[in-house]
Design goal:
It is built from no helices and eleven strands. The chain has 124 residues and is mainly β. Strands 2, 4, 5, 6, 9, 10 and 11 form a seven-stranded mixed sheet that branches. A four-stranded antiparallel sheet has the order 1-3-8-7, with no helix packed on it.
Length: 124
């Protein structure tokens, strides 16, 4: 069974940076893609960024492009999200997700596994 465990969230001032981590276990992720999503109360879960695990191809949502960077360390089975120039509107619970396909997609229902989430709060 795939397990995803996020960490690295916290409270930061606007303009600051955070790096989220997601440790993946339970499978060999050769033909997987992974992604970060975020969600605020009363809203649908929103796509942030995705990466193909083997090739490392990335895709970022327009709202975070040039500020956030998704990456992975295959040796450590860890997914990262480097978040710079944070804004109050980035405040959300951030989730790591894995999909049994190398194709990156933005639709939540196409991801097979989810982490428990980590809270990111950006103060103004």
């Amino acid at each position: 069974q795939v397990q995803l465990v996020e960490s690295g969230g916290g409270l930061v001032q606007a303009g600051g940076s955070l790096r989220l981590s997601c440790v993946a276990s339970g499978r060999t992720f050769t033909h997987y893609s992974m992604a970060w999503f975020r969600q605020t109360p009363g809203k649908e879960r929103e796509f942030v960024a995705a990466i193909s695990w083997m090739a490392g191809h990335t895709f970022h949502a327009d709202s975070v492009k040039a500020r956030f960077t998704i990456s992975r360390d295959k040796a450590k089975n860890t997914l990262y999200l480097q978040m710079n120039s944070l804004k109050p509107e980035d405040t959300a619970i951030y989730y790591c997700a894995a999909r049994e396909s190398a194709t990156q997609v933005i639709i939540t229902t196409l991801y097979n596994y989810w982490g428990q989430g980590t809270q990111v709060t950006v103060s103004s």
